[in-house]
Amino acid sequence: MDFCATILYISTQSKNGYKGYMNRLLPVLLSLLVAALFVTGCTMCRRMPQKTYIIAYPTRWQNIPLYGTEQSVTGFTSDLMYEIAKKMGLKIQLISADQETFPALLESGAVDGVLAAIPRNTMTEQFYEFSNAYFVSGAVLVVSTSSPYTKSDQPDSVEIGFERSEGSEIIAGAKPTWLLRPYDTAPRALEDLISGKLDGVILNFVNASRLTRSLFRTQVKILYPPLVTQNVYLAVQRGKNHQLIELFNEGVQKYVKSGEYKELLNYWGIESELTNWPHTK
Description:
By secondary structure, the chain is of the alpha/beta class. Strands 1, 2, 3, 4, 5, 6, 7, 8 and 9 form a nine-stranded mixed sheet that branches. It contains eight helices and nine strands.
């Protein structure tokens, strides 16, 4: 082999050796780079403060008759929010405010969300984005335990009592074929139901659940679905904090399925139709 050929051979072998060395080294370098980026990212995440969602609840519940359970519903709401926040990795702060100020508080950014029984209709949904209902109430049909009816939409030409003080909202879901008779008190209407003078009684769910668990526990039953719904939601201003709504819905769904939702209701001595029939809106 002459001198030039020898130099060319040595050069070729050196290049091949370097290329092999780099092929072995490159995966190691890439692994180190990924690890460095991960550590840097985690450090930045720790340094960046997590957003705290400020959520207002009403000083006085409106649009939903609670029959003396207002403080219990407030306690339930507060506990539920903090439990959902813990499950979903959220930071929240609850404050109380007059419900009339909710739109202004949301528009100004003073709060990120509100908890209230806001009626859902075309007008309110232009401003609010609503979660699924987390506390469900409304008007229900109560019948005697011996009644053949199993659903509220089954009775047709029947005589139905209702409590006069409830106003027109509670009978809004009544069928046109029902003959409605007003009563001064719910217990009096239920007594006539048991004696056979009525086929059913329309009551607010909170009141109905209380009476069917105490005075009339073995004599009457509640039929579903509700005739009228009055629900409590988490609401945000439309176009803002959509992720909060999604995380809240997911958290409530998990809480209901685990049975913890029912346990929390029992702790506060209240009931919600959410545990008695499938309901999402």
